[in-house]
Structures are given as structure tokens and as C-alpha cells.
């Protein structure tokens, strides 16, 4: 299984200059090569020798691969657009890289003792530099597995390394199944076959943060401070992503501690149609990343050897676990004519355990 871990780089002032120059030269070169392909098509046969750039040959080769991928996507878009009616056709522009980035394959960098070593261009030749990183114990343990590509980006003067890791899952010896119900008021409710339950996340806090940031965006919008709005959006996304990481970790730890071998989640393609919400929560529903939380749960579970399956979520919170009758809950309270009572989300998670599996993928049926 391949996952990506994000690591903060702590370069020296001299290294900052070298890395900045490399990222800018990389995207400039990629854009030039893409333009060559647009003009010359298949007649262009670029190699590291034919590409003029202040980059090590390893990076030139990577630039060529990236440019080919960009050009292929561009030509595919042209073909799809050409098949449409003339009135529906749109202008397809050649993609241009703008954000500073550079990519090294796993043969051209190494990670040891908290340092990443990779080649850059210094005084007309390829030179390897060792950059200090800020890593957690979890990341250090993860980076002992087989490494994939290294991607370095710059944002607001900070450098981040994204390293793909081919992690080997452990062997799970669990026997139970756990169902997870995702929602707004309670981000995740998990129930194990034997009935043990856990509530994860703080929906009230999440919604408060979204309301607060929405109000701030309106004020900044009236003041036409677009850069401040963008900064606020990024901050909100980082905060929500951190919450999803914490919730997913708690859920997987709960599964491990209770001998779970399979986790079942709702198929997400129709969750915005099936999710219970009120008019006041509608804005939150359509900005909520159910998919991201499901992905975090899936990759963390897979690393622990726990299988993840997706089920049809329809009526899971309306069906009585005792008699099978469908009833609508009153807020969080569920009551059936047979006398069964319970928490709506617990019932949803319980029914997810036995719901029909529709796919091993969170989005498609």
C-alpha cells in the first residue's frame, strides 16, 4: 500500500536559496517542455541532454516525465471537447505550472537520521545537499519502509516534503466487524458486533469553526482582502484535516483494541443526499469532507491489517435492528413500535455492519 507523509523541512539560509532556485527552475523547465510538445507533438523526443536547464540530469528526466503527463492530459481534454456539439465546446488552454515544486524519484534522494539528501544545481554542477527535517516518531517509523518519490513544495516561505511510502501492512488476527456512521453533529459513531460503542469527534466545535470562518470571509470580502481570505481558507482546511486525522486514529485504535478485522463504512457517492440535516446545517453539509475522513480511516486501518468495506447507506438509520421496520428518528432519539429504543447514530452504525457491501471503493458503487 502506498501512502504519502508530509514532512516540514528546516533548511539553512544557504539551502533556502538553492531549494527556491531548484523549484522555480523545475516548473519553468516543465512549462517549456510542455510547450515543445504542444508545438512539435510526437516528433519531439526530449532527453536530459536536449533539455536546457540549471538542473541535475535526474531532475531533467523527471521534468520530461511530468511534461509528458501534462501534455497527455491536455490532448485528452482536446479530444473530449472535440466530440461535443460546437456550441458546447470550450477553449482548452495549455496547462501551466505556477506553484513552486520539484520531484525526485526514489533513486535520487535518501532519508537518514532525520535528514533528506537530494541533488540540486550548484555552480554549474549537480551537488547533493542534506536538509534537516521536523519529523514525528510515527513518521520516522513509517520512513523505514520502501520509499517512493520525493516532492518538495514551498508555501508562504515554508518548505514541505511529501514522501510516498510503500508501507507493508501488519497481519491482523481480529475476528469482529465494526460499523461506522458518519455525520455532522457527531463526526463518527462506531459500533462493534458485540455492541461496544464509541463516539468520535466534536461536531459542535467543527460547526462553530466553520461559522466563525464564514463570517470572517464575508468581512474580508467586503474589504476586498483576497489574500487574507485565501490564508483563512488554508488555515481552516489544515484545522479540519487535523481533526479528521485525530478522529480516524481514535477509530482505528478502538478497532485494534477490540479485535476488529473488518471496518464497514457508508459508500459516499450519495451521502449528501442521504445524510440527515436541517436547513441551518445545509451549508456545513456541502463543505464537509466525508471523503477525506473515510480515506484517513481506510489507509490507517489498512496499515494495521484491518479490511475496509463500503456498504449501501440507505435506511441504515431508519431500520429497527430488532424487527426491521423503518421509522424516522426524532433528532437523536429513535423509537420503534415494537418497543425498541436507541440513539439514531448507534442504530445507523449497527445496521452498517450487516448492510450489503457495494464496493471496496468509497466513491463508486
Please give the structural blueprint.
Layout (H helix, E strand, L loop, with lengths): L1 E9 L2 H28 L16 H26 L18 E4 L5 E3 L2 E8 L2 E10 L2 H6 L3 E10 L2 E9 L9 E7 L5 E5 L4 E4 L2 H20 L3 H32 L2 E7 L4 H4 L7 H4 L4 H14 L3 E5 L21 E3 L5 E3 H11 L2 E3 L6
Parallel strand pairs: 8-11, 11-12
Antiparallel strand pairs: 1-5, 1-7, 2-6, 3-4, 4-5, 6-7, 8-9, 9-10, 12-15, 13-14
Helix pairs in contact: 1-2, 4-5, 5-8
Keyphrases for this structure?
365 residues, alpha+beta, Nucleotidyltransferase, domain 5, 2 domains, seven-stranded antiparallel sheet, six-stranded mixed sheet, 9 helices, 15 strands, 40% helix
What can you tell me about this protein's structure?
- The structure is a single chain.
- By secondary structure, the protein is an alpha+beta fold.
- It folds into two domains: 2-166, no CATH class; 176-202 and 248-359, Nucleotidyltransferase, domain 5, CATH 3.30.420.140.
- Helix content is 40%, strand content 25%.
- The protein contains nine helices and 15 strands.
- It has helices spanning 13-40, 57-82, 137-142, 203-222, 226-257, 271-274, 282-285, 290-303, 344-354; strands at residues 2-10, 101-104, 110-112, 115-122, 125-134, 146-155, 158-166, 176-182, 188-192, 197-200, 260-266, 307-311, 333-335, 341-343, 357-359.
- The strands form three sheets. The chain has a seven-stranded antiparallel beta sheet.
- Helix 4 runs antiparallel to helix 5 (226-257).
- It starts with a strand and ends in a 6-residue tail after the last strand.
Amino acid at each position: 500500500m502506498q501512502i504519502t507523509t508530509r514532512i516540514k523541512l528546516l533548511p539553512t539560509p544557504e539551502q533556502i536559496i538553492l531549494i527556491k532556485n531548484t523549484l522555480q527552475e523545475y516548473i519553468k523547465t516543465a512549462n517549456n517542455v510542455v510547450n515543445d510538445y504542444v508545438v512539435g507533438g510526437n516528433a519531439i523526443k526530449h532527453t536530459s541532454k536536449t533539455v536546457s536547464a540549471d538542473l541535475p540530469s535526474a531532475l531533467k528526466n523527471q521534468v520530461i516525465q511530468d511534461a509528458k503527463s501534462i501534455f497527455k492530459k491536455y490532448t485528452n481534454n482536446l479530444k473530449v471537447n472535440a466530440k461535443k456539439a460546437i456550441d458546447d465546446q470550450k477553449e482548452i488552454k495549455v496547462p501551466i505550472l505556477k506553484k513552486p515544486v520539484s520531484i525526485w524519484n526514489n533513486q535520487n534522494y535518501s532519508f537518514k537520521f532525520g535528514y533528506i539528501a537530494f541533488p540540486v544545481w550548484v555552480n554549474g554542477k549537480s551537488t547533493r545537499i542534506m536538509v534537516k527535517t521536523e519529523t514525528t516518531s510515527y513518521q520516522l517509523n513509517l520512513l523505514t519502509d520502501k520509499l517512493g518519490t520525493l516532492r518538495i513544495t514551498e508555501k508562504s516561505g515554508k518548505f514541505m516534503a511529501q514522501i510516498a511510502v510503500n508501507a507493508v501492512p501488519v497481519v491482523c488476527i481480529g475476528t469482529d466487524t465494526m460499523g461506522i456512521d458518519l455525520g455532522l453533529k457527531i463526526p463518527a459513531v462506531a459500533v462493534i458486533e458485540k455492541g461496544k460503542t464509541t463516539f468520535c469527534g466534536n461536531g459542535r466545535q467543527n460547526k462553530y469553526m466553520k461559522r466563525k470562518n464564514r463570517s470572517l470571509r464575508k468581512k474580508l470580502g467586503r474589504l476586498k482582502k483576497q489574500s487574507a481570505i485565501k490564508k483563512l481558507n488554508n488555515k481552516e482546511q489544515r484545522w479540519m484535516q487535523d481533526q479528521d486525522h485525530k478522529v480516524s486514529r481514535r477509530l482505528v485504535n478502538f478497532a485494534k483494541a477490540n479485535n476488529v478485522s473488518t471496518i464497514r463504512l457508508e459508500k459516499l457517492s450519495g451521502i449528501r443526499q442521504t445524510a440527515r440535516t436541517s436547513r441551518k446545517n445545509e451549508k456545513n453539509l456541502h463543505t464537509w469532507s466525508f471523503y477525506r475522513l473515510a480515506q484517513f480511516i481506510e489507509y490507517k486501518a489498512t496499515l494495521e491489517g484491518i479490511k475496509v468495506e463500503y456498504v449501501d447507506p440507505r435506511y441504515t438509520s431508519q431500520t429497527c435492528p430488532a424487527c426491521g421496520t423503518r421509522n424516522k428518528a426524532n433528532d437523536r432519539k429513535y423509537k420503534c413500535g415494537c418497543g425498541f429504543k436507541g440513539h439514531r447514530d448507534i442504530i445507523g452504525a449497527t445496521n452498517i455492519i450487516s448492510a450489503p457491501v457495494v464496493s471496496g471503493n468509497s466513491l463508486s458503487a
